[in-house]
Amino acid sequence: MRKSILILTSLLVLFALLSCEQDEPTRVNANDLPEIIGISADPPQLGKGQSTTLFVQATDINKDELQYQWSSEKGVYLQGMDRKFAVWQAPQNLGRYECKVAVSDGKETAIGTINIDVIDVPLLRVSTNELDLSYNLTSVVFTIRNDGLIDLDWQITSGKDWIAVSQNSGSLKFKDTSEVVVTANRENLIVGDYTGLIAIRSNGGAKDIAAYMEVAISSEMAHIPAGEFIMGSENGNEDEIPVHNVVLEDYWIDKYEVTNAQYATFLNEAKAKGEITSGLDYVKKNGKFLMYQVPINRDRRNVGCPIYYVDQKYVVERHEANTPARFITWYGALAYAQFYDKRLPTEAEWEKAARGSNANAYPWGESAPTKWDCNYNENLGYLAIVGNYSPLGESPYGCADMAGNVWEWCNSLYKEYPYNKDDGREDISQDGYRVLRGGSWDGPVMNIRSALRSYNETEFQHPSFGFRCAK
After folding, report:
1. Phi-psi category of residue 33: left, alpha or beta, with phi > 0 → left and psi -120 to 50 → alpha
2. CA–CA gap between residue 263 and residue 270 (Å, rounded)
3. In terms of C-beta density within 10 A (0-12 exposed, 13-18 middle, 19 or more buried), how is residue 327 classed?
């Protein structure tokens, strides 16, 4: 009997348990609220109109992708309103402001808040983001100002040996300013472009100023010995014949084409002496056009004239200090040469310097040109820095870029061969076409033979007309 009762009791307990399991609700697609772990602001306190970076850290137990949305009644979000990071700019009034962030997993949304105090603080203001110590500047000035009501303590460091500052630290009261002189030291630096940062740190903020400088190539001349050379070519155009021997005394000629940095220096020095006049897009001397200031932008490079007249001074566009001067007329080339007690090379002098005494077809010899020898046929798409093809493209006397880059003005009038220096063609007072030699960056290969002759009017301008000097 007792055994029967125990069996019946067990059956009743089992039935009760099964009934409870059937009554318990089943959880389907359960979702948990995202959890906001923390919100921070850097800096947590700031001055009027300053900005701070807000960051929210959140997780979701269901591993759903989270979405973010920042908001506030005051101030402005500069970026990142829908990201973990947001940049909030304070209003122009002191006080405590609340910033909110909504974190959603697509079903549930958690709200977090952070309070930002806008207080009186020192405010660093710097007059520039960038300093341009161009090809001929030794120093530039920028200004530090405190726009906050509390004293601003600042320090400056420069990361480059060629950058020096007049003062490394200071303190400024409200609305006070301090001028800092930045000096460039080009000694022992090779020709080229240099960049660096000037770091300003203070209790009112930080600022990095980019500094840029070009080291310009110096004028260098090659000596051409006296003697005889062969002028002209039987394989060229009709004006290159007859081939004939010409005897020249020794002379000097520029190793490189005159650069924009050198020509801008000449313009500034000549203007200081009252020898030239500046127009909107030209330079004149004694009524003659010397240069046309016509920029031509192509593929983010200026293949036209990169010399500008700014604040009563001629300056050169960045990265163009060491490219050849262009848009120069024959009068412009002559004026430069005479200003430095030089002259333009005669056509015969130019050809001998380019091809040597053995009548080479090209400055480097008889082999056909390649992109390693010179700048022609738009191989680069713009003008090259002078000397870019040295030594492979140099002439027997060490002259660079006598093929391609820019056409070069010669002193000579364009006359028939044989060449005769005493027939009036070297008289600079005579009117007529003047000779151009060497070809250009955008011209075909046929134009860069050393014997090829071209010519144009003395005041004609072109984006590939330049020159070099002789003496």
Report:
1. beta
2. 10
3. buried
CB atoms near residue 301 (< 10 Å): 17
Cα–Cα distance measured from residue 423 to residue 427, given in angstroms and rounded to the nearest whole number: 9
The answer to whether the beta carbons of residues 15 and 49 sit under 8 Å apart is: no
**What is the fold of 221-466?**
paralog of FGE (formylglycine-generating enzyme) (3.90.1580)
Written out in words, the top-level CATH class of the domain with range 35-118 is mainly beta
Backbone angles phi, psi at 11, to 5 degrees: -65, -40
Q: How far apart are CA 10 and CA 7, in angstroms?
A: 5
pLDDT in tens, 67-118: 999 999 999 999 999 999 999 999 999 999 999 999 999 999 999 999 999 9
Q: Does pLDDT of 386 surpass 90?
A: yes
- Strand pairing of 192-202 and 205-215? antiparallel
Cβ atoms of 124 and 207 closer than 8 Å: yes
The C-alpha atoms of residue 325 and residue 282 are separated, in whole angstroms, by 14
Mean pLDDT, residues 407-434: 98
Q: How many CB atoms lie within 10 A of CB 111?
A: 12
Please give the CATH architecture assigned to the domain spanning 124-215. Answer: Sandwich (2.60)
Domain ranges of the chain: 35-118, 124-215, 221-466
